[in-house]
Amino acid sequence: MRDTRESRLLLVLLIAIAFALITVDIRGGQDSPVDGARQAAATVFGPIENGVSSAVDPVGNAIAAVRDSGDRHDRIAQLEHDNAALKAKLGSDDRNRSRLKQLDKMIKVAGEGQYGIKGAEVIAIGAAQGFSWTVTIDVGANDGVKRDMTVLNGDGLVGRVTTVGPDTATVLLANDPDFTVGTRMESTDELGFASGQGDRPLRVEMLNGKAKIKKGDRLVTFGSQADKPFVPGVPVGVVSRVDPSGGDLTRTIYVKPFVSFSRLDIVGVVVKAPSSDPRDTVLPPKPKPTPTPTVTVTVTPSESALIDAQQQ
């Protein structure tokens, strides 16, 4: 066929018809109106295609190899993407497992102290309303949270609620210099007042200047009138240092908090106080002292000493 204007128009027309048929075929799916014609063509031309396949396979295989190499590259990229997503998921699962442990531990503390708590997540840290040691939690007035409620976690006293919004609240942490809580010594019931010192141990002024206190003794919250801002029995910390008594009316001790304030995540707001003081029941079991290993040295007589003993 000559390359004339008519031949070009015919070619364009045939291409347009082909695209139209392809569109109708795709939209028709299994009910495509050209399905019968396609099956008939396959019946007629199938044997011919099989007959010439040996001649065209090398070219076809080369094209397929180039196409498949792209597919393989895409599949590798997809696998790498999937692996990265899986690693991210595993990391998320590890974090979720850690948070689940925190939640379980906090629920156990709440059960032992008979505290009614509202679980929350720490969503922000930093200065709020002039406080230097605060966190923001994702529960608020809509969840029954009010100002001056005790906040704890699975380790002990976290702080108290200071401001409340509809869906969030600000918590003043127990290590803030403006924070003060009444404490009671385990077993001896000696009372004191603990104040925050930032990243240093809590400073506790004991009301009894002659109180017998030693390193390792533990404290809990004494509780407030009407249980606000503090409910009783929440673990506070362990005595790390005791100032020598100088005959003063009070005595100063330093307490390492049970709570790690730089790693807060899951906390609970005590929305219902216990019906009675849990006393020391919420404190964790005391660690058992590690036994000091003893070494027995056995002296083996030398060969010469044995010979001398035999000669005697």
UniProtKB/TrEMBL annotation:
The keyword Cell cycle does not apply. Involved in formation and maintenance of cell shape. Coiled coil: none annotated. This is Cell shape-determining protein MreC. Residues 274-312 are annotated as: Disordered. The keyword ATP-binding does not apply. Transmembrane segments: none annotated. Residues 130-270 form the Rod shape-determining protein MreC beta-barrel core domain. Gene3D superfamilies: Rod shape-determining protein MreC, domain 1 (2.40.10.340), Rod shape-determining protein MreC, domain 2 (2.40.10.350). Belongs to the MreC family. It comes from Streptomyces lutosisoli. InterPro entries: Cell/Rod_1, Cell/Rod_MreC_2, MreC, MreC_beta-barrel_core. Keywords: Cell shape.
